[in-house]
Design goal:
This protein has a domain at 341-509. The chain is built from 17 helices and two strands. The chain has helices spanning 20-51, 61-96, 103-125, 143-173, 181-212, 221-249, 251-254, 262-275, 292-326, 335-338, 344-367, 372-375, 380-409, 416-442, 458-461, 464-492, 521-545; strands at residues 259-261, 507-509. The radius of gyration is 23 Å and the shape is globular. The structure holds heme-as and copper (II) ion.
Amino acid sequence: MATTTVTTGRGSGGRVAPASGVRRLALAHFGVAIGAFGIASAMAMMQALSRANLDLPFRGPSLYYMSVTAHGTLMALVFTTFFIMGFGYVVAERALERALPYRRLAWLSFWIAVAGTAATVVAILAFKATVLYTFYPPLKAHPAFYIGLTLVVIGSWGWCAVMLLALRSWQKENAGLAIPLSMYGFAATVIVWLLATIGVAAEMLLLLIPWSLGYTSTIDPELARMLFWWFGHPLVYFWLLPAYVIWYTVLPRAAGGYLFSDPLGRLVFALFILLSTPVGFHHQFMDPGIASGWKMLHTFNTLWILYPSLVTAFTVIASLELAGRARGGQGLLGWIPRLPWGDPLVSSVILSMLLFALGGWGGAINASFGMNALVHNTSWIPGHFHTTVGSASALTFMGATYWLLPRLLGKRLELAPMAAVQPYIWFAGMLLFSIPTHITGVMGMPRRVFDASYGNHPTALSWTTLTNVSAIGGLLLFASALFYLLVVVFTVFSSRAEAEGIDFAEPLESPGPRSLVFDRLGLLTIVAIVLIVIAYGPPLWNHLQMTRFGSPGFSPF
Ligand code: HAS
Ligand code: CU
């Protein structure tokens, strides 16, 4: 396998661009990601209009729920996973400054994940898997849906293996050095993902697949939910950590400054390794059969995991301040207008942070055991996750596309004015969409209903204006998504031009030599496993000791 240093330089100042092998690999991943994003955006617009009770000819529950399933699966599971894997390969090659090893395994993993995605999407579009992206039993899907998603996970494990092997071979030759921060962030992402996917793999292989194939006639929904949320919460940090890699290691340089502190970034990623998984019951506060004490333990862990995001808020804003001051900003806040607000990477990230401040605040409310009763299963929750995965992750990934695509293709960004306004339209659309969605949730509007007017029931009249505002937000989001797709397509098909290299931000405070805590990823993983065993071992054991009643499957349509 090729492990030589990358020498295919491009751009000025000895910058090194990724060799063509990883470039093709990354572009293939981005192609799937952005294709999924395009389909999912169209479905989202239809849903926003449908919920707002607009009289559309195609409106009806069967299409609505199929569409929500496709939207959730394509956006949250396909767009994110493929984007993250593609970006991970670029970081592994560029940050470690050596050609990515095990490319064949990487391509094999890619094709497994593509095949799985195809099976899942076909099952959904054929109306055979209307189970939403959380696929809670006893809702039952066609086996192709579950097997397809399992293949996506297996493909992603191949990606994890390549990433870890790349890191290990770098470490062998650089024993005394700290892992470059961008790669450190991806190592944390990989570890979080591997620990998380144990839960969903168990759910798929032991419960859902045998049941959907007809080998078992009933299923234990509560056990399935426990295994799902073992996976489901760390999944959100699998989406978030690569965005943090961009915030810490790409944004400061693009803004014209330095990363305020590299060690603080490492602390953040290490804390995510430890705390991402033993928190999953915060999705099950309202579920029966789990003792409150265990739910309380997961509450405390969740409140701990707010901390690394608060540190991130501090460090990234401090880095932006450095950039703004380097650009001549004076006084307390005079650095803010000096930031390059017209650069689509910079504006995407800052706007995604502003939206994430809202989403994170909402997350603290969700996580508060008692208060969860107010918001659980209401439209507050879609409000929350659109300001987190739909903003902190998705908007950051869009901004990163503008930064990465020209560099990978060796081209200039086309339709640059469109790229410059696109993040602002997303921001405006997301505010109009998600603030009313939060508010109607507190008013009692359930999530997962296709007709928010309840057939024009009087109770629902109080929130009609708000759902109409969120539909307008949906239209803006759709317009923004179209802009993004147009910029991508025009850039891909433009002619070659001089492009800049892929460079990461320099830290003001550097990490020093290899750290005895942070660079011992094996040790951090062991501690994380111990925490998972404490948080999940006894409640799972208790559950298995109870008299359990299985449920047959249901398909409402
Ligand atoms: Fe969440 C439900 C708790 C973060 C995604 N979450 C969900 C669901 C999704 C999701 C998809 O405790 C729905 C699942 C379903 O379908 O049922 N969440 C949290 C908490 C956090 C959190 C405590 N969530 C995320 C992230 C996600 C995500 C990240 C995706 C990427 N969430 C919950 C709970 C539920 C839940 C319960 C279950 C609810 C229920 O009952 O069903 C924390 O990690 C959040 C920490 C974040 C912060 C914000 C820090 C702010 C920053 C930016 C500041 C910068 C600024 C810019 C202001 C503390 C970093 C300044 C700019 C200048 C220029 C100066
Ligand atoms: Cu969660």
